[in-house]
Write a structure and sequence with these properties.
8 helices, 0% strand
């Protein structure tokens, strides 16, 4: 606990819209010097890509990963409904906050707005799961996740994103047209 206090006491307060006061990599190195080896090893479970089948034994990390999985599954359901397509979805986890966030994100006016909304929902889930004890290991993991979200937000570039979106959309339309031509040509041969 003493090393947690020393680490946490020196950290700047994080605000969602701010620039990151340090990189997540720097923070992880800093935290690694103050937490136990076992606690340091758990950082590997705090990434945007994960296999949720592994349980860490840390209630905060497992809770966040379960929440993130529920969010992703609810997004898949909402996207399936919105696109009127039947997309096979494995048994969905349910979390009221994750389900509400997915439903609201689908209605955002742009993909960027949806991503920003989802990241803010993640931020709020992190706060809720971390609890009010600011000098425990949960706070350290929460701080790291928040730095990752701030870094992600900083990486968004609306102009570049829209350009990539248009390019991707054009390639999807080309693929669709090609598939239609193949279907037509196969129909002529039967």
């Amino acid at each position: 606990m003493g090393s947690n206090y020393y680490l946490i006491a020196q950290l700047p307060y994080l605000v969602y819209e701010q620039k990151p006061p340090m990189s997540s990599e720097y923070f992880r190195d800093l935290a690694g010097r103050h937490v136990s080896k076992n606690d340091n090893d758990l950082f590997k479970y705090l990434t945007s890509e994960f296999d949720n089948t592994d349980k860490t034994g840390c209630d905060f990390i497992d809770g966040y990963r379960d929440w993130e999985l529920a969010l992703r599954q609810n997004l898949a359901v909402q996207r399936s409904i919105k696109s009127k397509r039947d997309i096979p979805i494995k048994e969905a986890s349910f979390d009221m906050g994750a389900a509400a966030a997915a439903l609201k994100a689908i209605d955002e006016k742009s993909p960027l707005d949806a991503e920003l909304f989802l990241d803010k929902a993640r931020w709020n889930a992190i706060d809720e799961l971390a609890g009010s004890n600011n000098f425990c290991r949960n706070y350290i993991y929460a701080y790291f996740l928040k730095l990752l979200l701030i870094e992600r937000r900083e990486a968004f570039n609306e102009e570049k994103g829209f350009s990539e979106y248009k390019s991707l959309y054009a390639s999807i339309l080309e693929l669709h047209d090609e598939m239609e031509r193949v279907k037509e040509s196969q129909g002529e041969h039967t």
